[in-house]
């Protein structure tokens, strides 16, 4: 019987490349672990929200689990707004509109876990 488990992966923080998120002013994303690393089910990513950053209202085809690492910022989920800070956890169900805004003078950051695979992102018209 062959062992189909993936090999363990350890990535150093300095090895993670961050890129600007095109639809979001002042947000950067680093992919920590994904299917590119042979992770069979989930990807984890780290997002950084610069002071003054905003992410427009949008939906994703897949659910998001998030853990706030640093800073204080506002997240809109559905019809509610939440001020979040380091140590807070969020579940954003698939298809639910959500947005981010960092009105503070400090960077905010969070870890986001999503299922591997394709994700359709659609901007939501707030008008």
Automatic annotation (TrEMBL):
<feature type="domain" description="Cupin type-2">
    <location>
        <begin position="46"/>
        <end position="113"/>
    </location>
</feature>
<dbReference type="InterPro" id="IPR014710">
    <property type="entry name" value="RmlC-like_jellyroll"/>
</dbReference>
<dbReference type="InterPro" id="IPR013096">
    <property type="entry name" value="Cupin_2"/>
</dbReference>
<protein>
    <submittedName>
        <fullName>Cupin domain-containing protein</fullName>
    </submittedName>
</protein>
<dbReference type="InterPro" id="IPR011051">
    <property type="entry name" value="RmlC_Cupin_sf"/>
</dbReference>
<dbReference type="Pfam" id="PF07883">
    <property type="entry name" value="Cupin_2"/>
</dbReference>
<dbReference type="InterPro" id="IPR053146">
    <property type="entry name" value="QDO-like"/>
</dbReference>
